[in-house]
Amino acid sequence: MPAPDEFDTLVVGAGIVGLTTALLCAEAGLTVAVLTAEPVGGGSTGRSIGVVSQLHGTAYSRMRSETAARNAAAYRAMNADGFAWLLAFCERVHVPVRRFDALLVAEDPATAQRIDDEHLAARRAGLGVEKVRGLDLPFSTFGGLRLPDQAVVEPGALLDALARAAVGAGVELLQGERMVGASVVRSGVSTVETTIGTRRARRIVLATGTPVLDRGLYLLKTQPLRILATAGSTSGAGAPQVVTVTGSRGSHTIAPAADGVAVTGGAHPVGVGGPESRRAAALEGWAAEHVPGFERTRTWSGQDYRPYNPIGFVGWLPRGAGRVRLASGFDGWGLTNGAGAAIRLTAELLGQREPAWARTIGRRNTRPASFGLGATADAQAAARRVLSVVRLAPADRRLLAEGGGVVHRVGDAVVATSRVGGTVRSVSGTCTRFGGAPTWNDLEHSWDCPVCGSRFAPDGGVLEGGARTPLATLPTDPADWGVAPPAGRPATAIN
Q1: Phi and psi for 473 in degrees, rounded to 5?
Q2: Please, what is the angle between helix 155-168 and helix 69-93, to 10°?
Q3: Between the CA of residue 412 and those of 89, 392, 433, what are the distances in Å?
Q4: Contact between 178 and 42 (Cβ < 8 Å)
Q5: Can you list the domains of the chain with their CATH numbers?
Q6: Cα maximum dimension of the chain
Q7: pLDDT at position 383
Q8: Does 248 have pLDDT greater than 80?
Q9: What mean pLDDT is reported for the chain?
Q10: What gap in Å lies between CA 336 and CA 329, rounded to an integer?
Q11: Could you give the count of Cα atoms lying within 13 Å of 290 in the half-sphere of its Cβ?
């Protein structure tokens, strides 16, 4: 029997994977705690558009070239189980679910072949997609697939329900507490260090998107992505279908939302490729072209991780003494993948027989094509650690606009300075995880590391990603940046 201050299982992360795993384990009689740095709903799951679908863009055609057919079939079975569990849970606790057919369509002739490739690959994996033509959509298409009877939920409502059910089953929910380290032992009780103190558990589940313990080289096995989303009203008759559009401008998904319709797209490596506001404007423009009468009400972004192996990672964390498990690499399709991952993790934690698909995926091999993708992306990420940092003249500093940020050199130090809400803040310009030089995200007002995908607030606090410690704060004189310091507070110059 665990002591009152320790748990059978400590789950780190309160998204779909973490809360589902915690609920299933608690219902089976384990003592469980969920540790989360942000409130429930503040992470990747809460920032999704709530599509619960087994049609994952062109995932199966990629798997066909990079992994064995049995692994694609296992991926299909995993997501089928996750899909079924999620819908059954929503029915049990009365979370509203709207059912729609899911569509995958080509936006231009150049990408029409992808539809045929995905049809063949998905059917071989056992997914019941059907080819369709003459779709009643408000834009031209060049071939499409349909998977009937998929779903959309409001992600905040789903997470709130999961959290309530977990707490009702005995889970202790520890919000506002970030994991910063762990001392893991092969037998007995391990210690997890947090921003509040320490927690003790016999087993640990890392459900944080990317493992916060740098073991197993998952930084080299996945690519952190920002995914843009916009929502708004529409003049179109009736609710739209769930439509994933592939074309020369990338992949986009349109789905019903509480305020009309939501659109995602613009997936890109974290901290790479110019201002986020420019990407947001491009997504809003695409939505206006494809959704009749689209009037934007909000735009935001979320983060996920694309595995270089085409199937995400679920199971043991290497060098975790057999006591640490993880789930990562769902490539924007985290609801069904995440619920499936929780089913697998729970079976392992309870010592139950794993589903057949879990055993298959757990023994999969990666083909050279995936290694090539990973090696190329890792080389690009490593190159981003090298940054030519400018020295700003006094006149240059006064050009920093509200909502802006700049990385510059002061003496021998690399400094990141931002101006948000009239407040100028300077922090270290070197990521605390692997030393990358962060770039300013003008949409979310954050410092984003293009090497590891960690994100930091203007004051240096960790927002998400694998970083466990904040960027060091540095003194600055607001007057140097054309901003008067608050009354009664003297400024300290950094140079």
Answers
A1: -80, 145
A2: 80
A3: 56, 13, 20
A4: no
A5: 6-159+217-370 (3.30.9.10), 394-481 (2.102.10.10)
A6: 70
A7: 57
A8: yes
A9: 90
A10: 13
A11: 32
Task: Quote the tokens at residue 95.
Answer: 């979370």
Distance, CA of 160 to chain centre: 18
Q: Give 77-133 pLDDT, tens digit per residue.
A: 999 999 999 999 999 999 999 999 999 999 999 999 999 999 999 999 999 999 998
205, 11 contact by CB (below 8 A) = yes
Structure tokens at 453: 């995908």
Per the CB < 8 A criterion, the answer to whether 466 and 453 are in contact is yes
**Average pLDDT of 222-237?**
91
Nearest to 43 by CA among 215, 175, 152, 213: 175
Question: Any idea what DSSP says for residue 390?
Answer: B
Which alpha helices (H) appear in 276-355, and where do they start and end?
Answer: 276-290, 334-350
Asked whether the beta carbons of 272 and 448 are under 8 A apart, the reply is no
Q: Would you state the structure tokens that stand for residue 44, as one six-digit string?
A: 């990747």
**What percent of the chain has pLDDT above 90?**
78
Helix ranges (H only) for 126-192 are 155-168
What are the structure tokens assigned to 113, written together? 């072949």
Higher pLDDT, 91 or 218: 91
Q: How far apart are CA 280 and CA 251, in angstroms?
A: 14
| Token pair belonging to 171 | 């889970």
Coil, helix or strand at residue 359: helix
Distance CA 171, CA 164 (A): 9
* Predicted local confidence at residue 369, as pLDDT: 55
Q: List the one residue out of 24, 37, 154 whose CA is nearest residue 97.
A: 154
- In sequence order, the 6+-apart residues with CB closer than 8 A to the CB of 323 are 184, 185, 186, 190, 202, 203, 204
The pLDDT of residue 1 is 47
Residue 7 tokens read as: 């748990």
pLDDT over 80 (residue 4): no
DSSP letter assigned to residue 355: P
